[in-house]
Amino acid sequence: MADWNLRLLLHRLWGDQPLSYRSWAVQPEPMPIEREFWRRRDVDVLEIPLERYVTALAQQAGLELAEASV
Predict the structure, then answer these.
(1) What is the end-to-end Cα distance of the chain in Å, rounded?
(2) Nearest to 51 by CA among 62, 65, 41, 63
């Protein structure tokens, strides 16, 4: 959440209302201010690389991911 434009957009969408369901954000190395932002909105931060999260999610769903060519 280092991007202030995105933070402003999310604040306007959510306001100060808590969510009625559990949410999470995948962020490998969140800064303290980002952790606090998510904590105030009851969002769990998963401090892992997105690629690792997607791979684990695909495995749980029984899917195979194609290798990305760089």
Answers:
(1) 27
(2) 65
User: Can you give the pLDDT at residue 19?
Assistant: 62
Task: Tell me which residue has tokens 């105030």.
Answer: 40
30-69 pLDDT, tens digit each: 999 989 988 887 889 999 999 999 999 999 998 887 765 4
Rounded Cα–Cα distance for residues 70 and 62 (Å): 25
Give the separation between CA 61 and CA 20, rounded to whole angstroms.
Answer: 25
- pLDDT of residue 70 exceeding 80, the answer is no
- The answer to whether the beta carbons of residues 18 and 41 sit under 8 Å apart is yes
Q: Report d(CA 30, CA 35) in Å as an integer.
A: 6
Phi/psi at 21 (5° precision): -145, 160
